[in-house]
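Question (not urgent): is this output format expected?
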Amino acid sequence: MKMKLRKCSCGGTAEIVDGEPTELGAKMLREYGLIPSRTYKAVCSSCGKSTASFPYGDEVKADWNRLNPLPLRKYVRVVRCKDCKHRKERHYEESGEKPYIKYECKFTKYSMSDDGFCSFGARMIKDGDKNE
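Got this back:
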C-alpha cells in the first residue's frame, strides 16, 4: 500500500521536491567532485513547512505524516451493558435443569454480559439521577 501525504496543519497540500544533499554527499562533491545521490523532502505549498532530506520518498512521507498528525475524532459515549436501558431480561427453562436468566440487548439482539459495552447504549435513568 502506498503511503499518502496528509494535509498540512495549515490546510495546505504537500509536495515532494528535490532535497539538499546530505553532509556526506556535500563532502563527496567538494573533495572528490562526485555527484551526490538524489534526496527528497516534502514542502507545504501554503506555509513552506518542510521535512528533512531523505534518500527515499517513503521516508519523506513517513516524516511528513509524523509532523502532521491526524485530527482527533470526537469520542462516542460508551455505556456498560448493566447500566443500559436497552437491556432485556429473558427467562430460560430447560428440561431437568434449573431455570436461568439471560440478558439480551433490545437494540442489537445479542446476549450481553455485565461487563460488556457498546456505543449504541443509552444509560438508564435511575431515581435521583440528573444525567439525562
